[in-house]
Amino acid sequence: MTLPDQMTAVEISDSGGPDVLRPVRREVPRPAHGQILIRVAWAGVNRPDALQRAGAYAPPPGASDLPGLEAAGTVAAVGPGVTEWAEGDAVCALLPGGGYAEYVTTPAAHALPVPKALGLKEAACLPETFFTVWSNVFMRGGLTAGERFLVHGGSSGIGTTAIQLARAFGARVFATAGSGGKCDACRELGAERAINYREEDFVEVLKAEGGADLILDMVGGPYIPRNVKALANDGRLVQIAFLGGRSAELNFGEVMARRLTITGSTLRPQSDAAKARIAGELREHVWPLVDAGRVAPVMDSHFPLEDAAKAHARMESSAHIGKIVLEVAGG
């Protein structure tokens, strides 16, 4: 495939609100050893993109300064040492950055085939959320069939994915959301109980059920001590973000007495090898469910690449249910 020298991309011109995102022309990257170059059809929009835009989440060393942590498209070129992909293959991939562009490079081991049941638009919604949910809920959190699982932000991209996967693997699923419509969406995806946090106390709801065995939280702040109270004995709290703040006062005597585990992770700074392990587990355990149509991304809206600022404004309004994507080349 003959590659162009230049491509259209969206860069962060300065730290700030959505309006700092601007279309530019950049050089087309070339894949290094172990990498593939993807011609991007669709790119996912995620909270870490907004944090990077605001100056609060710097790219790891060696990563593109362009935002965008997931994309779907076709392999345009393969770097030295790559044998599992060939030019023209349809893939979706976790990216170290650079997804808001017509071309992007990523380690070959971080790409997965586009599931049979999905198009490229839907596949672009998978990597960031599925890598995050699988690694935190199942690999780190150890969720098993029959356990009570609570996910906060059930109508978000993370939440809608977590509900479906937890239900598919036999857990009892509970979710919080901020409106009746969002609660309805959570129940339709498989939550047996959706809690409108503006009207109910999730702590009391979970305590009445015997407590949560596992909680996935991206709120933090005042939710941290409340999560601890909502856990069953030997329960686990997995923290993946701090939208409500990074600090809280917590009685660790309760943590010790009830043998609780508090842990968490961020995905982007992890090693290439760690991300490759997650990709391998997804291919083995989750992709068959997606291929069969048992699990699917929930789509909220899409915007042209040049309207990335509008996509960020939509995401930060918290009015969305599910994933937001950018159309780069379509398909």
From TrEMBL:
<protein>
    <submittedName>
        <fullName>NADPH2:quinone reductase</fullName>
    </submittedName>
</protein>
<feature type="domain" description="Enoyl reductase (ER)">
    <location>
        <begin position="16"/>
        <end position="326"/>
    </location>
</feature>
<dbReference type="InterPro" id="IPR014189">
    <property type="entry name" value="Quinone_OxRdtase_PIG3"/>
</dbReference>
<dbReference type="InterPro" id="IPR013154">
    <property type="entry name" value="ADH-like_N"/>
</dbReference>
<feature type="region of interest" description="Disordered">
    <location>
        <begin position="1"/>
        <end position="23"/>
    </location>
</feature>
<keyword id="KW-0560">Oxidoreductase</keyword>
<keyword id="KW-0521">NADP</keyword>
<dbReference type="InterPro" id="IPR011032">
    <property type="entry name" value="GroES-like_sf"/>
</dbReference>
<dbReference type="GO" id="GO:0016651">
    <property type="term" value="F:oxidoreductase activity, acting on NAD(P)H"/>
</dbReference>
<dbReference type="Pfam" id="PF00107">
    <property type="entry name" value="ADH_zinc_N"/>
</dbReference>
<dbReference type="InterPro" id="IPR036291">
    <property type="entry name" value="NAD(P)-bd_dom_sf"/>
</dbReference>
<dbReference type="Pfam" id="PF08240">
    <property type="entry name" value="ADH_N"/>
</dbReference>
<dbReference type="GO" id="GO:0070402">
    <property type="term" value="F:NADPH binding"/>
</dbReference>
<dbReference type="InterPro" id="IPR020843">
    <property type="entry name" value="ER"/>
</dbReference>
<dbReference type="InterPro" id="IPR013149">
    <property type="entry name" value="ADH-like_C"/>
</dbReference>
